[in-house]
Amino acid sequence: MALENPTYPGALSVFCGTGSKYISVPVGENGIDLNVLEDVLSQRRAKLIYVVPSFHNPTGVTMNVAARRRLIEIAGQFRVPIIEDDIYRELRYNGPDIPPLKALDEHGMVIYISSFSKVGFPGLRVGWIAAPRVVIDHLNRAKQRSDLHASLLAQAAIFEFARRGLLTKHIKRVKKAYSQRRDAMLEALEKHFPDDASWSRPDGGMSVWVRLPQSVNTSQLLVQAIESGVTFVSGEHFYSSSPRQNMMRLSFTMAGPQAIEQAVKQLGSMIKARLLKSRKERSVRRTDGLRALV
To answer: pTM for the whole thing?
Structure first.
């Protein structure tokens, strides 16, 4: 298995369990690093490639069309199927739409998966897969052995909701609200976070990926934040290898603009206090290392 690093923690739990073999490929500004992927596949055999090409979780980056075509070419060259997790596709707030890998796939190399859970129905665990018939038949048998089938009531409810045209209207409302919340978070980050922090500016999705100075451990910061009623996901949970302790994912979909502003302000104050303390400690250590010469 070749997968992005960092990536969705749920994928890590499925593909990177005890005894599993996987290849971690770094994520850049345009998604999975295709040069590294091609080099790795030329040396090691992989059975699958897992990617989130649109509004990647957690970084928020989106692969452009050229990168998508090249990924499909690489997969075809080495005969490795791609799992395209396109769960955030409907949540685009600005910028031109980009076709999924599945739409560009001429050789049946892409297994496309998505879900209704991210467009406003987190309690309805209903998703779907588009793949060659042989893959669907195999997955159908595996599903039946696992739990027979997904909830028929949930499937029927979503079908009727969509049939009446309500799903399309609902997605429009969700996108409008999420877009406003994303903008509120980006504005709050500019206002309240330290100058040496940086973050993604995604065109869609549900979160912002933040890089803090190396001296800030976000797992430790989270403990303090929870005491103030603020929560986030520390970056280390998204890595299959070489986790980075100074990264954090901030979700903007679960609170309104005012609550987002207040939470980011609180986090900014905590981070600045930690940076100030770290600078003072470094200054003391340098001073302690000095010796009088008289």
So the answer is: 0.92
